[in-house]
């Protein structure tokens, strides 16, 4: 039985004192800051284990790390594949004059910074202070620009590949980062890497689920869900919801005479043109819903503006040995609370209009009248 004077035996039979256990309630406690850091790592592990977007995971990690290590600011950056450029994705905390929380174009070249070069070449953590004569001059210059006194960086290695950098600063006059903070950051980035890996996989799966693999446009599922949302979230003041249905004329002949590779090239070229033209109407969703058929859903824009863009596309031709063009039909419904029509009926009206345009070989968009009263009638073929 063990007690305060308990001992154990060595191999030669001699007694060896053992450490007596601490009485209950008398065990040494971890320092408060160390305990809070362990708890923050546990919280991060829980949070990154849940489903979430990459942005949400980075935000949770950055805010948690800033509090745990007493940083003035924390930034997360991504190494752009195939380059020596690090692009900042997120800044939190006390930001410098030129920093934004979600920057659009904040980049740094690894060849400009000794610290960044060390990180990209060897995945090595580093610490820099203003008063250290051996500090990287460019990093010191950056600290002065940000109004900070010290900085620390740690590599983010995801699935065995350097993915980015986790960067923290402290204000002038505050103690610089030490070994404890470096160790914490290394543990945090190891946990964060798992969350990033999962988020990227989920984004890839979502991309596959909602996008056409050939063109990168939305697919039928994405179109249907967006249309359902537009009808389900009707506002008190009705707003126009317009669909444009476009069909490629000549795709079958291209496939038959020049092969499906050329046919795919035609499909991608048409998709690119549709994406470019409808980008002028913010929020427009361009989808490929069949082999040669595209549907565009536009919410809240003047139907005349939608038809004008469609007419421009109808006037284009693609010459791949055989001339190809588009036949377009459009339909609009005013969606408000109490609207009885549904997306399926709106799409059907657009299909009928497109059929009229194709049958008449028209180079302008055929527009249906009142969708609510034309469910059984085909739009009239222009004379």
Automatic annotation (TrEMBL):
Q: Which SUPFAM superfamilies match?
A: GAF domain-like, Nucleotide cyclase
Q: Which SMART domains match?
A: GAF, GGDEF
A GO cellular component term found in this entry reads: plasma membrane
Q: Where is the GGDEF domain?
A: 239-369
In terms of domain of life, where is this protein from? Bacteria
Q: Which PROSITE patterns match?
A: GGDEF (PS50887)
Q: Which InterPro entries match?
A: Diguanylate_Cyclase (IPR050469), GAF (IPR003018), GAF-like_dom_sf (IPR029016), GGDEF_dom (IPR000160), Nucleotide_cyclase (IPR029787), Rev_trsase/Diguanyl_cyclase (IPR043128)
| An example molecular function term from Gene Ontology annotations | diguanylate cyclase activity
Q: Where is this region: Disordered?
A: 1-32
One of this protein's Pfam families, by short name?
Answer: GGDEF
Q: Which GO terms describe its biological process?
A: cell adhesion involved in single-species biofilm formation; negative regulation of bacterial-type flagellum-dependent cell motility
Matching NCBIfam families: GGDEF
Protein name per the record = Sensor domain-containing diguanylate cyclase
The beginning of the lineage is: Bacteria, Bacillati, Actinomycetota, Actinomycetes, Propionibacteriales
